[in-house]
Write a structure and sequence with these properties.
Elements: H1 2-14, H2 16-34, H3 40-47, H4 56-73, H5 75-81, H6 92-101, H7 105-138, H8 143-155, H9 165-179, E1 182-183, E2 190-191, H10 205-222, H11 231-234, H12 245-250, H13 252-267, H14 273-287, H15 299-323, H16 329-340, H17 349-352, H18 354-384, H19 390-409, H20 412-430, H21 436-458, H22 470-496
Antiparallel strand pairs: 1-2
Helix pairs in contact: 1-18, 2-3, 2-4, 2-18, 3-4, 3-16, 4-15, 4-16, 4-18, 5-6, 5-7, 6-7, 6-15, 7-13, 7-15, 7-18, 8-21, 8-22, 9-21, 10-19, 10-20, 13-14, 13-15, 14-15, 19-20
């Protein structure tokens, strides 16, 4: 293994052009991650054809750089503007923006960039060392196991709903209901389409996400209903990496938890970083000694989300390389890159194209270092965006959001979806209904329904078959334990009060 890594690093550094292409990929990824609506999927889609003339190792390495850069770039607008740049940075808004309003934007940005680096490196180490073992476990997951995982993720909404459990559940149910619009994933039956051909495919995630957060934020701010003093955000000071060593040491436990969540969820096809940041936030909040402070601006929250979504990168690569199964849309484009160069990922990939695979591993490590360097170098520049007068900045954000929504499927319909969910976001803000449960319900709605229906088909409608699936049963036992622990914790706090 060490010999293969040595050869891989020698391949990258032997030609400056190789390193330059990876650097360009990281910069492009960061830019697409920072701009609301322009996710890693859009960046990979645009740059995939450019790698056609490159060799396999360098072409995929550039795409991997884009993937890593875009996943990390989303944290910038989440912290500075309360607008998630990518779906994987939604939960970063919860504590990132309140930290920025306290004048601690430097600490929030510095800590999240470094934790993004840590999460990526840990996931790469897991990818290299335990990929075959993880893949062998994942391949045993059937409909009931996948259903249990999605139900487990949905059950954690209870820790994200804020003050009102009822409003949180309403939001989550609304998200699942919206996910059912379109053609049924099992039998292709039309549901809630009202004979509109545009609704056959349902709603794409990016227009829904950007509409709820970005458009509603822009409209609320522009209308004067929300007046925010950004002076403290713009005047932040950052020394070194932006945080003290003692602060990093105090977060080691949270970093470990977030890495485990990110890698574990990343390995599961169809779940990915969009869910891992929610789950990691919930897990860290449950384990915290001061859960009531989450959402008011604690560093633990941003550490959890940004470590986990980057840890999901290596997790997503496990089923892609070992089984040929993409974990999300981004890795599906990486799969297309492999196949474009005549290589089919799967169990034999390490035997047939071992040196090229290790070049990809090495390029991911190099991309992680370059991502951290680019993010730290451009941090001040990102903050200067806030100095642009709102009457210039807000229209630009709206245009970028519309472009990002349109780029998903090249449909004008998605731009209207963006506006519709922007209005829904304003209504939810007015009635203090939390938006994160809706997003999580929307993301997990389809896999939740699909796996439940497949499981029932296999068992002829008998839910009792869950007993014969120990992995699924284990997840349900874990759900019961989590809610029981939460109830005990609640009673202990009430006695202390």
């Amino acid at each position: 293994m060490l010999e293969l890594f040595g050869t891989a690093f020698a391949t990258i550094f032997s030609n400056p052009m190789n390193l330059l292409l990876i650097f360009i990929g990281v910069v492009v990824g960061v830019i697409f991650g920072v701009l609301p609506g322009l996710t890693s999927v859009a960046a990979l889609s645009m740059f995939l054809p450019l790698t056609f003339g490159m060799n396999l190792a360098i072409g995929i390495s550039m795409l991997a750089g884009i993937y890593i850069g875009a996943t990390s770039g989303g944290l910038v607008t989440s912290i500075l503007m309360n607008i998630p740049g990518t779906p994987s940075s939604i939960a970063t808004c919860f504590d990132g923006y309140p930290l920025a309003l306290k004048g601690e934007a430097g600490k929030a940005l510095g800590m999240t960039v470094f934790c993004s680096f840590i999460g990526t490196m840990v996931s790469i180490a897991a990818l290299v060392s335990i990929a075959p073992a993880l893949a062998s476990v994942t391949i045993k997951f059937g409909p009931w196991e996948n259903f249990a995982v999605t139900f487990f993720s949905l059950s954690l909404i209870a820790s994200l709903v804020g003050k009102s459990l009822a409003k949180g559940l309403i939001s989550a149910i609304l998200g699942v209901m919206i996910a059912t619009i379109g053609m049924s994933p099992i039998d292709a039956a039309k549901r809630f389409t009202f004979n509109n051909i545009q609704l056959l495919d349902g709603f794409a995630l990016v227009p829904v996400l950007v509409g709820l957060y970005a458009i509603s934020e822009v409209i609320t701010t522009s209308s004067g209903a929300k007046v925010v003093d950004t002076t403290k955000i713009m005047d932040f000071k950052i020394r070194g990496l932006g945080f003290k060593l003692a602060e990093l040491i105090s977060q080691i436990g949270n970093i470990i938890r977030a890495c485990i969540v990110g890698i574990g969820i990343g390995v599961l096809p169809g779940v990915g970083a969009s869910t891992s940041n929610f789950v990691a936030y919930a897990v860290v909040k449950k384990a915290s000694k001061y859960p009531e402070k989450f959402g008011t601006g604690v560093i633990d929250g941003v550490v959890a989300t940004e470590t986990s979504n980057n840890a999901a990168i290596g997790g997503n690569m496990v089923p892609l390389l070992c089984l040929g199964i993409p974990g999300d849309a981004s890795t599906a484009l990486l799969l297309a890159g492999f196949m474009m160069h005549g290589v089919t990922p799967g169990p034999l990939l390490f035997q047939t194209h071992g040196p090229a695979v290790y070049v990809i591993f090495a390029s991911m490590i190099v991309s992680s270092f370059l991502m951290m360097a680019v993010m730290y170098a451009s941090m001040r520049g990102f903050v200067r965006i806030l100095k642009v007068p709102p009457y210039f900045l807000m229209p630009v954000i709206v245009v970028l959001c519309i472009v990002g929504a349109y780029a998903v499927g090249f449909r004008t319909f998605d731009a209207w979806v963006l506006v519709a969910f922007g209005i829904l976001g304003i209504v939810m803000r007015k009635f203090d209904i939390p938006m994160p449960p809706l997003i999580l319900g929307f993301i997990l709605g389809e896999p939740f329904e699909t796996n439940l229906r497949r499981g029932l088909q296999h068992s002829n409608g008998d839910l009792g078959q869950l007993i014969n699936h120990p992995i699924a049963l284990g997840f349900f036992i874990l759900i019961i334990m989590i809610f029981a622990a939460a109830e005990v914790q609640k009673r202990v706090r009430s006695k202390k009060a």
